[in-house]
C-alpha cells in the first residue's frame, strides 16, 4: 500500500507491507524522490529496503522511478525478491517496457499499480495545474492514465495493462516460473560476475542526531548512564 508518511516535520513517500491477515510487516521509504518531489519529500535510507518472506513468496517494492535505479533493483534481487511491487504514477508506454525488463532481469513477478485519475476526482480549484493526456479539458479528462500490469519472470503479461478505467487486475502466479527463468539468467547467481562487479548496501539508518551515553561510577560503586 502506498502512503505519505509523516515523521516529525518531514514527509516520506512510503510503501507499507501487510500480511494476508492484515498485520503490518514494515515499510520502504523512497530513497530518491524524483525531480520536484525533493521539495516535498525526505530521502529514505538503506534501513528500509526490506524483502519479506511470506507464504505466497518473497515480497519487496520499488517506488516509481526507483525502478530506474539499477543498484536499487540489484539490492532487491540480492535479497531474493519474488513478488516485485512497483507502485507508480508513470502511465507511459515506456514504463511498460521497464516493467517487462525488470521481470526478466530479476527473474521475478512484477506487479505494477498505477493510479487512474480524472479531473473530476479532484476538488475544484482555479490554481490546479493539470497535465492532461488529452486536449479536451473537461471533468472526464484523464489526469493519470493508469496502466497497472502483472508480468511473469518469463516476460509474459499475465494481466493488464489497464489504461481504460479504475479497476482491479488479478492473475494466478506459477512460482515455478521463477526457477524456469533463473535456469537461463540469474542476475545475482550464476550470471553474476562478482570478481569484476559487486554491490555494497549500507542498511544502517542515517539519523541526524546520535546520542552517545557514558558510564558514570557513583561513590557507592554503582554505575549509571549519563547522556
From TrEMBL:
What's this protein's name?
CN hydrolase domain-containing protein
Q: Where is the CN hydrolase domain?
A: 1-175
| CDD domains for the chain | nitrilases_CHs
Q: Which GO terms describe its biological process?
A: detoxification of nitrogen compound
Q: What reaction does this catalyse?
A: 3-cyano-L-alanine + 2 H2O = L-aspartate + NH4(+)
Domain of life (superkingdom): Eukaryota
Query: What PANTHER family does this protein's entry cite?
Result: NITRILASE, NITRILASE 1-RELATED
Would you identify the family this protein belongs to, as annotated? Belongs to the carbon-nitrogen hydrolase superfamily. Nitrilase family.
Amino acid at each position: 500500500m502506498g502512503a505519505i508518511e509523516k515523521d516529525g516535520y518531514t514527509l516520506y513517500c512510503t510503501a507499507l507491507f501487510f500480511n494476508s491477515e492484515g498485520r503490518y510487516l514494515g515499510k520502504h521509504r523512497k530513497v530518491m524522490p524524483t525531480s520536484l518531489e525533493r521539495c516535498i519529500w525526505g530521502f529514505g535510507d538503506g534501513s528500509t529496503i526490506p524483502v519479506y518472506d511470506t507464504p505466497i513468496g518473497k515480497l519487496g517494492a520499488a517506488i516509481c522511478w526507483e525502478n530506474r535505479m539499477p543498484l536499487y533493483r540489484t539490492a532487491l534481487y540480492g535479497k531474493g525478491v519474488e513478488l516485485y511491487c512497483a507502485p507508480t504514477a508513470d502511465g507511459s508506454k515506456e514504463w511498460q517496457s521497464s516493467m517487462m525488463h525488470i521481470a526478466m532481469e530479476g527473474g521475478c513477478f512484477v506487479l505494477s499499480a498505477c493510479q487512474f485519475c480524472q479531473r473530476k476526482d479532484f476538488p475544484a480549484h482555479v490554481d490546479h495545474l493539470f497535465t492532461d493526456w488529452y486536449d479536451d479539458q473537461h471533468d472526464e479528462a484523464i489526469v493519470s492514465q493508469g496502466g497497472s500490469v502483472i508480468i511473469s519472470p518469463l516476460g509474459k503479461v499475465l494481466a493488464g495493462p489497464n489504461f481504460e478505467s479504475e479497476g482491479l487486475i488479478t492473475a494466478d502466479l506459477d512460482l515455478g516460473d521463477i526457477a524456469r527463468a533463473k535456469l537461463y539468467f540469474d542476475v545475482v547467481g550464476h550470471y553474476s560476475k562478482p570478481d569484476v562487479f559487486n554491490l555494497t548496501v549500507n542498511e544502517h539508518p542515517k539519523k541526524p542526531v546520535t546520542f552517545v551515553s557514558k558510564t558514570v561510577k557513583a561513590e557507592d560503586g554503582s554505575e549509571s548512564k549519563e547522556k
